[in-house]
Specification:
The protein is of the alpha/beta class. It has a ten-stranded mixed sheet. The protein has a two-stranded parallel sheet with strand order 1-2. Strands 7-8 form a two-stranded antiparallel sheet. The protein is elongated, with a radius of gyration of 21 Å. It has twelve helices and 14 strands. The chain binds iron/sulfur cluster. The site of iron/sulfur cluster (SF4) has 12 residues, from α4.
Length: 359
């Protein structure tokens, strides 16, 4: 009766321990099972040869092993602004779709993962916010995005692999923190196929204050990026509705505390939008916010989204903005806007697909 079976990948490692011990087997069998599922990515219980036929039988009567697949992909030519970014539409086993992006560069392969199907936070500049919210991803669905991309690039050359992961895809990862933490445990597990370094993982947020404290105390050595986009309370709240509760003042305190606990700098991400947050006074507000604690500013260009009123700033305006920040003594980097020819702004591919289904 396949309908009564549940997905074995919906459980955490700790829950697998409970399942396996309840079936009368020692706990270490759950660790073997976890390795089969998330490192070897075995598609059936029969192939898990070291589990013993009795346990394999019991598992296959109760559970199934779900899989995600790449339903569509878009590749930006390397010559077009140089990045060679690829965007994948990943189909989950319940039919939902999310986006995953590969950003290759000379010394790394970075995968941008989604943490939710859609997003409930409705930031005014974001295609994912425009989609609305369906559900949060399971830890296994976050891991699977990286595995699928890793398969794809290791298949091409035989030696490439995913080196860096950023939680900057669809969804707000801090609204799905237990699954994000569980996924990080698996993605960084020593001896597993992926085994990405924790230090090469960046969690990005629009600034949910209580959860930032939780990350600071988690013991992970991952990096934190906060999408600021305005350093004026009213303006920020108009772009990011969740900033009404997570005020700039409380965010600043949480970030100071984060730095004090982790001794790691925070990246403040600031997306320049023409006529919205690009004036001299906006730059001065940002300089004030970033002054006096360990941080660096990452300026990014707005990636135009169909049906949205926002536009990227002109180069001259961006240069003035940078000069104000540098003169104030801040460390500033400018990130290229990757994947403009393939709608790489988060949520655009999924929206296009969803609209096709709806229309
Ligand atoms: S920017 Fe991030 S938090 Fe805001 S709506 Fe988009 S996905 Fe959600």
């Amino acid at each position: 009766m396949p309908n009564e079976k549940t997905s074995i990948k919906s459980y955490t490692r700790r829950e697998l321990h409970e399942i396996v011990t309840a079936l009368g087997e020692p706990k270490y069998r759950a660790d073997q099972l976890h390795r089969w599922l998330f490192s070897d990515r075995t598609a059936d219980f029969d192939s898990m040869t070291n589990l013993g036929s009795n346990l394999r039988d019991k598992l296959s009567k109760r559970y199934f092993i779900p899989s995600c697949s790449i339903a569509k992909e878009l590749h930006e030519p390397v010559s077009s602004r140089g990045s060679g970014t690829s965007k994948f539409l990943v189909k989950l086993h319940d039919g939902q779709a999310i986006e995953t992006v590969l950003i290759p560069s000379a010394d790394r392969n970075t995968v941008c993962v989604s943490s939710q199907v859609g997003c409930p936070l409705h930031c005014s500049f974001c295609a994912t916010g425009y989609m609305g919210f369906t559900r949060s991803l399971l830890a296994s669905e976050i891991v699977e995005q990286v595995s699928l991309v890793n398969d794809r690039i290791s298949g091409q050359s035989g030696k490439d692999h995913v080196s860096n992961i950023v939680f900057m895809g669809m969804g707000e990862p801090l609204l799905n923190l237990p699954n994000v933490f569980e996924a990080i445990e698996t993605l960084t597990h020593e001896g597993y196929r992926l085994a990405v370094s924790q230090r090469k993982i960046t969690i990005s947020t629009v600034g949910l204050v209580p959860q930032i404290s939780e990350i600071a105390r988690s013991g992970f050595t991952t990096k934190l990026a906060v999408s600021l986009h305005a350093a004026d309370q009213e303006k920020r709240a108009s772009l990011i509705p969740s900033a009404r509760e997570n005020t700039l003042e409380s965010l600043r305190q949480a970030l100071e505390q984060y730095v004090a606990i982790t001794n790691e700098p925070v990246t403040l991400v600031y997306m320049l939008i023409e006529g919205i947050n690009d004036t001299e006074s906006d730059a001065k507000n940002l300089a004030r916010f970033g002054h006096g604690f360990l941080c660096k500013i990452n300026l990014i260009d707005y990636n135009s989204i169909v049906n949205m009123r926002f536009k990227p700033v002109k180069a001259q305006r961006r240069d003035c903005f940078i000069r104000t920040l540098v003169d104030a003594g801040l460390h500033v980097t400018v990130r290229k806007s990757y994947g403009t020819s393939i709608n790489a702004a988060c949520g655009q591919l999924a929206i296009t697909e969803k609209n096709k289904v709806v229309s």
